[in-house]
Amino acid sequence: MATSETFAFNLDIGDIIEEAYERCGLEARSGYDYRTARRSLNMLMLEWQNRGLSLWTVKNTSQTLTAGTSTYALTGDKLDIIEGVCRTDAGDTSLQSDLSMTRISVSTYSQQTNKLTQGRPLQYYVERTPTNLNLVFWPVPDDAKTYVFNYYYMERIEDAGNAANLNMDVPARYLPCLTAGLAYYVSMKRKESQQIAPMLKQVYDEQWELASDGAREKASLQVSPGGYNIL
Asked: Which single residue of 60, 96, 200, 203 could bond 184 by disulfide (Cβ 3.0 to 4.6 Å)?
C-alpha cells in the first residue's frame, strides 16, 4: 500500500476558520467573519493558558542578578515561573553549580523581618502585574559572587495575527481541539448555530481531554516523606 511518506500535515488559520464554520453549519464569507474568528482564536488561547501548564510552552532562560538589586521585571511573554535555581560560576565547566531555591508566597515574603538582608538568594517571590511578572529575591544578592537565576517558565502562546496563511502557535496534534474550540466559540455568537452549541462544547471538552492527556509529563514520580522527586 502506497503512503505519502510525509509527516507535515498542518492547517493555516484560514483553514481552521473554515473548518470551524462548517462544523457550525455556516460559511465564512465576509471579512468580518474572519476577523471575529481570529478574535475568538486569541481568546481561546488565553483560555487554554488559564487551564494550566502546556508543555510545549515551557522554555528555559536565565537572569543575571545584580548586587543590591532584589526586583527584576520580566518581559510580557512570560506567564509564570515553573521552577528556578541560583547558578554560581556560570560557564565554568568545573565550578558551575546550581543551588536549589524556594518559591514563596507574598505573605511569606511580607513576613521577612529584614527584606534588605544581602547574601546568596535562597527564595524568590513572583509578583504579578497586569502586563508582566516581577521576580523578587531574598536575600538580596550580594557581591560575593555573580549569581544567575536559571529558570523554566511558561511562555504565552503567540497571537493569531492578521494573515490567513499563518499557522497557530500550537503543536499539530492540538488542531482537532483547536478547531473544536473555535467552532464552539463561533456557535455562541451566531443565532443560526446556538442550538448546537452544547453539542459542540461537548466535542471541544472531549478533544481537550484527549490532547491534554497526551501532553502530560511522562516522567516517573516518586513520593517520599518531606518532598517528592521526579525520576
From this structure: 200
